[in-house]
Amino acid sequence: MKLRARLALVVFATAVPVIAGVALLRERIQWAATEQGLADYALDRMQGGGREACEANPAAFPPRPWMRPNERGLPPRGLPPGPNMPPGPNMPPGPNMPRGANPARPSPDSPALEARGFPSDAALAVEVRTELWAYGQDFVSHNPMAPTFPTEIREALVAGSAHASAKWFVPSQDGIAVGVPMPWRDGPCAYVLVRRSQVEPPGALLSMLLGPSALLAVLFLAMMVTAGPVVERIRRLTREVRASAAARYSRRADVSGSDEVAELARAFNAAATEVRSNLEAIESREQALRSFVENTTHDVMVPLTVLQGHLTAIRRRVEAGGEVERATVLEALQEAHYMGSLIQNLSAVARLEQEGTTLACTRVDLAALVERTVARHAPIAKARGIVLEYAVPPEPLAAQSDVTLLEQAVSNLIHNAVRYVEPGGHVAVVLARAGTRFSLRVLDDGPGVPAELRARVFERAFRADSARTRHPDGLGLGLSIALDVARRHGFELELRAPEAGGTEFELRGDACA
Amino acid sequence: MTHRILVVEDDARLGEQIASHLREAGFDPVWIAHGDLALDTQPRDFELVILDLMLPGAYGLDVLKHMRQRSDLPVVVLSAKNDTATKVRALELGADDYVTKPFWPEELVARVNARLRRPGLTRSGVLEFGALAIDPEARSVRVEGAAVDLTRVEFELLLALARRPRQALSRAWLAENVLDPDRDGTERTLDVHTSRLRKKLGAHGSLVATVWGVGYRLDVKEPS
Q1: A468 and A417: one domain?
Q2: Is A377 domain-assigned?
Q3: Is the pLDDT of residue B57 over 80?
Q4: In chain A, whose CA is at the least distance from the CA of B79?
Q5: Does A428 contact B214 at a Cβ distance shorter than 8 Å?
Q6: Of A56, A112, A277, B22, which is most buried by a Cβ count within 10 Å?
Q7: In a shared domain, residues A345 and A438
Q8: CB distance A382–B106 less than 8 Å?
Q9: Residue A440's CATH number
Q10: Chain A residue whose CA is closest to B113
C-alpha cells in the first residue's frame, strides 16, 4: 500500500468513530430537548384551559387530539381548531427541526424559509403530528380513542420522575411519547401523554452526513497536502539509493534535514560505506589471488622447463646408446624436488599473507616432525652425496604449533642446507629439550652465509613475487617463510656462523609440558 | 618375511608406482583404487596400510575411521592437501604418520620402515647385535662371547646407544644422561669416554659411529 493511501486509511479510521460519536451525542441531546419541550407543552396546554375541558368531559378530551406541530393555534388545513387549543408560542421543539433552537418554527408557507431550502409541510410524505391524551390516576383514559399508557413511562412516573419518555413506534416513522404528571394529581386528567411523530425531512439525513463528509474531505485534503513533501522526499531518496547502487556505492545520498527520512539517508550512507569497503577488500583479494596465480605459474614454469631439458638430455643419450650422465639425472631430481618445495612454500605464503590468518595450533610431536622432514630431503641429499643425519631425544618432546607451517619452516632450513652444501658435506638436524623449551638446530659444513648477507636474511619482508628470482645464494622465499612462521608462533629463529665454518640455524620455542 | 601392505590410492599411475616401489623395497603390496573396496578388506591380512586421503567414493578419513574401529594396524596417510586441519584430523582419527605429496619413493619406504620397526626391544633382556651382546641386568658386555670390562660411564653410553640402534643420539643428550653429574659432564669428556669404549670393543669399536654435527650412533645391521 502506498504511503498516501495508508495515511488516508488512518484518517478515515480515526475520523469515522469520532463523527459517529458526535452524531450519537447530538441525538441524545435532541431527544432530551424534545422531551422537555413536549412536557412543557403538555403542562401549558392543560393549565391553559385543558384541565377544565378535560374534567368537564373526559371521554371526549381532547376534542381534537392531534395537531400539526407548526400550528400556531390555528387550525390545520381543513380542520377546525379545538376550543381548548392554546394560542401562542407553546409549541415544543422537535427533532424535525434540526436547526431549531427556536421551537416555534415559522410557518412553512413562509416563502422566505422555503426559499432557503426548508421543506414545506406539504412536501412531507408523512404526516407529522403531535397528540395529547389525558389519563386518570390509574393511567386509564376516559377517552376510548386514547392509546394505552406505555408501561415503561408509567413505571418511571410512578417511581417519581417529573416526566418520562419512550419511543413511539409509528409506521415508517420514529416517534416520541412523553408522559407528564399534572400538578393536581387527581381527576381524570392526572396524567397527560404527549406523542409526537418525528420525521426527518428528506434532506435531514443528507445534511447529517454532509457535515462529517465535508470534514472528512477537508481532513483528506489536508493529509494529501501535508504528506506530499514527505512522499516526495522518500521518492527522491529512493532515486538516490538506486543511483548509488548503480555507481557501486561510490555516490552518497543527500542527507539534508533532520527528520526520519534524513536519518534513513544517513543509515544508507553508512551501509554504503561498509559495502564499498567490503567490495574494495574483495577486489584487492581477487587482485592478490590473480597475481599469486600468475607468479606461481611463472615460478613453477622455470624449474619445470629445466626439468624437461634434463629429461630430454637423458632421452637423447639413451637413444644414442650412450650412458646417462649421473649429474644430469641428479639435476633433474633436484629440480623436481625444488619444484615440490616451491609449490608448498607458495601455498604457505598464500596462507601467511592472507589477512587475519590464524594458526591452527595443536600439540605437535617434534621428533616425528623432524623424522618426517629429514625423510623428505634424504633422497636428494643421498643423491648429491651429502650426509644428512638427525637426532631426537628418546623422551617425547612436543610444542603447540601449526604442524603444516612448522614443518614447512623446518623443511626450508634443511632444504636450504642440502642444496648448498658441497657433495661430501654434512647436514645435521638436532632436536633437544632445554629446560621448558625446545631447540631445533640445522647445521651444515657448507660455504656459510656471507657476513654482509646474514642480517638481510631475517630483515627482508617477503612477498610471493620475491620468489620469482631464484637467488643463487640460496636466500630465497624459504628462509623468509621460516622466519615468518617462527615469529607467528612466538619462536625464535637465529642464524649463526660456527667457528668451524658452515651455517647453523636454531629454532627455539616453548615446549609442551 | 615379507610385509603385506595395503595401498589405497585412487590414481592409477601413482598406485601402480607405489606398489612397484614397495615391491622393489621387499614388501608385498596390494593396491586397491577405491575407498569403498578398502572397507571390505580384512585388516588382519595386512601389516600396514598406505591410505590416500582424497579418495573417490568413501572419503579417506572415513576409511581411516572405519579401519581404526576394526584394528590398530599402522596407517600411513598420503595427502596432497597440505592443510593442517586435515592432517590433525587424520592423526586424531588414529593415523600413525603422514606423507605429503609430492614424495620420493625412498621417502615413503623410509616412513613405512619406521612404522614397521618393532619397538620390541624391551628394557630388560639381553640386547644382541651380531657379535655384540649387552646384558642390562648383569651390566655385562660380551664381544664374540668374551666379556669386556667397561667403566660405569662406558657401559651406560653403550646401553643408551643400543636401546636405539641405528638412531643417532646427540652429544648433549648423552652428556646429560650418561655422564656422572657429580663430575665433569662436558661433551668433551663424553668424546674421551667414547674413544675409550671403542678401543675396548676392539675390532667392533667402529660400531659406535660418530655422526657429524649430532653425536653418536650404534651402527648395527637391521635384523633380518
Answers
A1: yes
A2: yes
A3: no
A4: A404
A5: yes
A6: B22
A7: no
A8: yes
A9: 3.30.565.10
A10: A375
**B170: chain A residues, CB-CB within 8 Å:** 391, 393, 430, 432
Helix (H, G, I), strand (E, B) or coil at A119: coil
* A325 in the same domain as A457: no
Lowest mean pLDDT among A180-184, A210-214, B59-63: A210-214
Which residues of chain A are within 8 Å of residue B84 when distances are taken between CB atoms? Answer: 360, 362, 402-405
What is the four-CA torsion angle of B149, B150, B151, B156, rounded to 10 degrees? Answer: -150
| Boundary-marking domain end, from A154, A188, A211 | A211
Chain B contact probe: residue of A296, A362, A365 with most B CBs at under 10 A? A362
* Res A221 pLDDT > 70: yes
Beta bridge partners of B134: B127, B141
Pick A507 or A42 by higher pLDDT: A507
Q: Which of A211, A233, A260 lies at the terminal end of a domain, its last residue?
A: A211
pLDDT (tens digit per residue) in A432-473: 999 999 999 999 999 888 887 777 766 544 333 444 444 433
Task: Find the mean pLDDT for residues A208-235.
Answer: 80
CB-based contact B211 A376, cutoff 8 Å: no
Locus of grid cell 391553559: A48
DSSP B53: S
Residue A172: CB atoms within 10 A of its CB come to 9
Nearest to A430 among B104, B164, B214 (CB): B214
- Is any Cβ of chain A less than 8 angstroms from the Cβ of B123? no
Q: Residue A490 — very low, low, confident or very high, per pLDDT cuts 50/70/90?
A: very high
Does residue A88 carry a pLDDT above 50? no
Chain-chain contact of A428 with B85 (C-beta, under 8 angstroms): no
Residue B201, pLDDT > 90, answer yes
Same domain? For A79 and A118 the reply is: yes
**How confident is residue A270, by pLDDT bands cut at 50, 70 and 90?**
very high
Predicted pLDDT of residue B118? 58
Residue pair A334/A380 in contact by the 8 Å Cβ criterion:
yes
Cell of A461: 619482508
More confident call, B39 vs A411:
A411
Are the beta carbons of A29 and A101 closer than 8 angstroms?
no
How buried is residue A242: exposed, middle or buried, by Cβ count under 10 Å (0-12/13-18/19+)?
exposed
Same domain, A480 and A363: yes
Domain count, chain A: 3
Task: List, in order, residues 6 or more apart from A206 with CB less than 8 Å away.
Answer: none
Instruction: Give the burial string for B41-57 (b: 16+ CB within 10 Å, else e).
Output: bebeebbbbbbbbbbee
- Does A185 share its domain with A162? yes
> Does the beta carbon of B173 lie under 8 angstroms from any beta carbon of chain A?
yes
How many contacts, defined by CB atoms under 8 Å, are there between A and B? 84
What residue numbers bound the domain in which A315 lies? 278-357
Shortest CA distance to A193 belongs to which of A13, A309, A66, A300?
A66
Q: Is there a single domain that holds both residue A165 and residue A287?
A: no
Examine the domain organization and report whether A152 and A13 are in the same domain: yes
CATH fold of B127-218: Arc Repressor Mutant, subunit A (1.10.10)
ipTM summary value: 0.89
Question: For domain B4-116, is the CATH number 3.40.50.2300?
Answer: yes
Domain chopping of chain B, boundaries? 4-116, 127-218
Yes or no, beta carbons of A427 and B213 under 8 Å apart:
yes
